[in-house]
Amino acid sequence: MTDRSENAAGPASGSFLVAALYHFARFDRYQSVRAPLQALCEENGVKGTLLLAREGINGTIAGPDESIAKVLAFLRAQPEFTHLEHKESRASRMPFLRMKVRLKKEIVTMGVEDIDPNRIVGTYVDPKDWNALITDPDTIVIDTRNDYETAIGIFKGAVDPKTKTFREFPDWVKNNSGLHNKPKIAMYCTGGIRCEKATAFMKEQGFDEVYHLKGGILKYLEEVPQEESLWEGACFVFDERVSVTHGLKEGDHKLCHACREPLTVEDRASPEFEEGVSCPHCFDKRSEEDRERYRQRQRQIELARKRGETHLGS
């Protein structure tokens, strides 16, 4: 990851600056930082989610450039986060509805005790060197994200664990003895944070040569030219943009507000798609009573939109 001075503007454009960040550090006083951080964000029109835990910070925020700069300056003024890095992209409209600073047990939930990326972690690989690693026949490439994320994009030749949550990943590793068949394991995720824990876990399990993509898919899509890219599809992001593509341009996916699955243009052309109510992924999993409840919510959202307001249920 790079900090803001190295990554201004970029190929994607939009009125709002989006900053994705995480940092593992011993942060025993995390509870006391919540209130001033929440207040600073609200005072400066910054929205998004930041998670604070004893192991560090994780989250994504969006707002005017100068407001994001103030929040990042506040975070880097904390002794634990002096070396905090972040990744930037842009959004044509505010991609979050509100600002949430939450206290958590983990900043990314794996559910395995004593996994500490500050103590043991895999080897970072810069985006410019990633293609060479994942095309090496001695390498197994693993996507550490969940199934709804891998459904819209994945690196060519990568193994998809098809996990529903990151908590399932440790069991998936333990149940796949074939991962020992090649000497190198290369892992990746959206921004890098899941791989910090995933590679630490793999090292604890006895895997020796474990690598992970520095800055995640987002950094790869930012830095690697599309004509050289081994990325196929779009990258799911956890905000109202839903997906980004090469150059971190906004993708054309939308979110089904009934089941939270990302939808392609083809999905939205399906007779099973009704905005805010159903899509091909969930139509057979919901009752007509459920859909009627969603329709009532959607009507409230549309009324709020006509009034120029934001409905929190959207």
TrEMBL record:
Organism annotation: Rhizobium straminoryzae
Protein name: tRNA uridine(34) hydroxylase
Taxonomic placement: Bacteria, Pseudomonadati, Pseudomonadota, Alphaproteobacteria, Hyphomicrobiales
SUPFAM superfamilies, A to Z: Rhodanese/Cell cycle control phosphatase (SSF52821)
Broadest EC class assigned to this enzyme: oxidoreductase
Annotated gene: trhO
PANTHER family: RHODANESE-LIKE DOMAIN-CONTAINING PROTEIN 7-RELATED (PTHR43268:SF3), THIOSULFATE SULFURTRANSFERASE/RHODANESE-LIKE DOMAIN-CONTAINING PROTEIN 2 (PTHR43268)
Stretches assigned to the Rhodanese domain: 135-229
Signal peptide interval: none
A GO term for molecular function: oxidoreductase activity, acting on paired donors, with incorporation or reduction of molecular oxygen
Assigned EC number: 1.14.-.-
PROSITE patterns assigned: RHODANESE_3
